[in-house]
Amino acid sequence: MTTETTVNKLEKVLIESLDERRAKGVLKGKEFVITGIKYPKGQKGYRYLIEGQGDKEFLKMNANAYLGMPMRPEVMKAEDDAVKQYGSGPGAVRFINGTFKPHVELEKKLARFHHREAAMIFSSAYAAMIGIFPALISKESALISDELNHNCIINAIRLSRPKVKEIFKHLDMVDMEERMKKNVGEVNRVIIVTDGIFSMRGDYAPLDKICAIAKKYNDQFEEGVTTIVDDSHGVGAFGRTGRGVEEYTNARDIDLVIGTLGKAFGVNGGYVVATAATIEYLRETATTYIYSNPITPAEAAAALKALEILDSPEGLKLLEKLRSLTKRFEKGLMDLGFEIIESEHPVVPLMVRDTQKTTELVKYLTENGVLATGLNFPVVPRGDEEIRFQVSAAHTEYDIDFALGVLKKYKETH
Q1: Do 228 and 285 reside in the same domain of the chain?
Q2: Cα–Cα distance between 179 and 71 in angstroms, integer?
Q3: What is the pLDDT of residues 387-402, one digit of tens each?
Q4: Does 153 map to a domain?
Q5: Which CATH number belongs to the domain containing residue 235 in this structure?
Q6: Number of compact structural domains in the chain
Q7: Which residues form the domain of 399?
Q8: Pick from 247, 281, 310: which residue ends a domain?
């Protein structure tokens, strides 16, 4: 059998799989290409140009850049200056090539921001989760996880192979505690993991209650109960000072917080904050840290600047604007008769609850200059199909009203 024949046979199977996904309506399809950005003018915020659409302008309501950091001159200048000083890339992994000053400074500042002893940077928050879990979960561990946790948590659990895996009903603390109880005497270590903000819905985990349950049962397990939260969508977008769900719920005892630099901070990369001993251990054992290049020194410098802005009076103003615009958009949607999940978080889900209708509405929005994300099964459970809008502090009131105007026309014509 020749290599070409083998490839052709495999390719046939792959094409059949794609056709099956297409028939089910779950194929993500071709990605659009952004060819340019128009800066704010008059009442308008940023507008985006897309390949094949000529001069047509698009309002972006599908980005995670909640504070508008990617386009801030100070952030871009910090990255540009660092490229000139340190070059365009790190060259190798940190234990081989050494590390760069911006990496070290960023880790120190992230630890202080989260009121922790230490921090470490990964190439992404996904890589952080995949690296941390196998390092912390032993063969005698129970893993307790919310049923709507992000894909990175699901895959990290699969790689970790805990003795026991318990999935509790979404945000159901009674169910979570019952699953804790049943493992007393069965395992020596328990890890509770949850998203902070659930990115498909904009709702949040009751971290204060999770901490209380963890504390209640800690002494009943030889190696205790450890709590981990992935607050990638919360940090920089939620809480009075942008410290995420931990701040919003006044939770005091989360052991590890995983975050991203690629959303509110507007750059790239992920990180974890914890005790100094935990971070030292993870530097020696987390494979995605040891064997993957870090973010570039320039990205670290840009993230440092973004964090500096967030942790300042200017940051408080950005967060207040973000909350105001989110409330304006939510009220507008409800006034139009749409079903949403209310939250202070700038993820605003418009619940359509039908795959075909979701696809049709996304198409209508795009045709009328608004970019939003349609979420269908299996990304969300059947019956929870939605359009996910994401508000940014870089938006204007005019932008919000423009999107609402398009949705009003849709309501009137469909």
Answers
A1: yes
A2: 45
A3: 999 999 999 999 999 9
A4: yes
A5: 3.40.640.10
A6: 2
A7: 24-57+313-413
A8: 310
411: annotated active-site residue:
no
Q: How far apart are CA 62 and CA 18, in angstroms?
A: 25
Q: Is 199 a catalytic residue?
A: yes
What is the three-state SS of 74-107? Answer: HHHHHHHHHHHHHCCCCCCCHHHHCCCHHHHHHH
User: Which residues make beta-bridge pairs with 259?
Assistant: 271
Among the listed residues 103, 114, 263, 321, the single catalytic one is 263
Q: Is residue 158 part of a domain?
A: yes
- Is the pTM above the cut of 0.85? yes
- Dump pLDDT digits (tens) for 281-319: 999 999 999 999 999 999 999 999 999 999 999 999 999
Compute how many other C-beta atoms are within 10 angstroms of the C-beta atom of residue 267.
28
Is 182 annotated in the active site? Answer: no
Selected catalytic residue, list 123, 124, 141, 199: 199
- What is the per-residue pLDDT across 136-147, written as a single tens digit (0 to 9) for each? 999 999 999 999
Catalytic residue of the set 60, 103, 114, 233: 233
Same domain, 126 and 52: no
263, 285, 310: which is the final residue of a domain?
A: 310
